[in-house]
Design a protein that fits this description.
mainly alpha, kinase, transmembrane, dolichol kinase, endoplasmic reticulum
Amino acid sequence: MVASPLTAMNGERAVVFFFVFRVLSSLPLSLLPHALSLSLLSVFSLFVEIRADGCLSLFKTRPGASSGIMLGAVTLPTMMLSKLIQLSRAFSLQQIEIGELEHMTMQFWAASACCCGVLIFLSILMWRASYNKNPHFSCSVWDAKFSLSCVILFSVVCCISLATISHTGFNTALKLLWLLCHGFAAVKLIQHLLNTFPCCASIGEALLLTSGLVLYFGDMLACTISKVCRLLVSPELVSIRYGIKRSEIGIIIQGVLLGLLIFSAVFKFVIHLWEYFWRADNSESRQNKEIRRSLIFFASLGFNMIVVAPSWMMIVLDFDVHPILWIFQFVLSEPLKRLSLCIYWLGLIYASVLRFYNISKNSKIERILLRKYYHLLAVSMFLPALIYQPKFLDLAFGAALAVFLVLEIIRVWRIWPLGQLVHQFMSAFTDHRDSDILIVSHFSLLLGCALPIWMSSGFNDRPLIPFAGILSLGIGDTMASMVGHKYGVLRWSKTGKKTIEGTAAGIVSVLAACSVLLPLLASTGYILTQHWFPLLIAVTTSGLLEAYTAQLDNAFIPLVFYSLLCL
């Protein structure tokens, strides 16, 4: 039975619809096909989410969370469209070249293809489940027709849009094939994630992660292919041109993540071979096996980080020196500022972690409230660096992400001698949204602060955009939780814990922080173009999303806030 629009519309879906509508209402006429495609994607995702609520669980998702399919499906494409709106303004002012605009257009369609592919996959799974449960289920035929109509219309709009930026029909066909590969890769990856890490994420959270990973590594692959073609063939004969001019820091971060991805696959393969050939040897003690396994781990990690990843970096971008030496040169180019910042960060992290770890073991303070102090720690760490050393902060975020990934790999695989120690330490800061299989909260907080900063590189006519993650998570989300926990009485819903008082405190605190931050940015040379009414809409929308969503707010709220600030 299909729910009526009024009964199907809950608070989270209403906020998501308003978020999409706000972005669509800011589009120029040149982006009309993109608006139509995002509208189709929103309606299709709502339809799939409603059907998923009435269907048997197809995957073991995070307990206590809704499916979040609509929010997960529209967040990344809407963010790309907001960035495209910003770049359209820059192109009209002749601040960027057409290549950068075309690159972002392909990123938008790639993100949309990833989400649309996963929605098609979920629709097929639910249609088969409904048919197997009741072969005479008449609604399943209507479901199939509606889904097919959305997919066909989306494909037609996509073809028309790509034809306008392609010079030949062959070029258009290549781009469509590239988008089809994105959709197929997203489907395979989300299946792998949900089956390998059960009960760790909702479908919407897995969809956001999947589309982000496919988009990011697809961009790396396309950039590599373009560079290799130019190296193998005379540049005058090669018409392949992909992407934009990339910074050394961006390439280094991509290379490190690529190295860790290759390392994980290679290490798993080597361990399986080792266990296959040496499993008959039972005379070796367990400790010796763990030591040998640990040596293989650290040796392969070092080889990938020193040889494999830098080799890719030097192929894609012409480094004059080894990328590791480039990092040292970059840090020492302003030694007083950057080394002082490192010392400040290390001292703050050591004091805070030691203090909060002892509190978490001996105190009865709720974990979710205790972890909000880390949000405040993020503000004190990242805000000064973002104002005075933004490029160095870009590099520091990449280094922190790499360290987090290595520590999580050590924890999951229990690598001797650090595996158990890291697991015990990280478990002190988990809550109901984490599991023993995978701890994601620290990743979501780091990426929530870092992604708006990374995305705002290049042209930026909205000075608050890089601060989207710090403001929404470090200030807004923290104040909402603290005030709501201590003073909250009026709840948004009967079953939820979020309160109106907490939401109001979060919105007011972000607006107050913006009123202080904008004059400070003006004093450092920023040209202020941020108007207060759009800012109020952005802050209120992200605050309401925090109040209504059951998803991992660290992942979604910064991206929604960033998207609205771009307008």
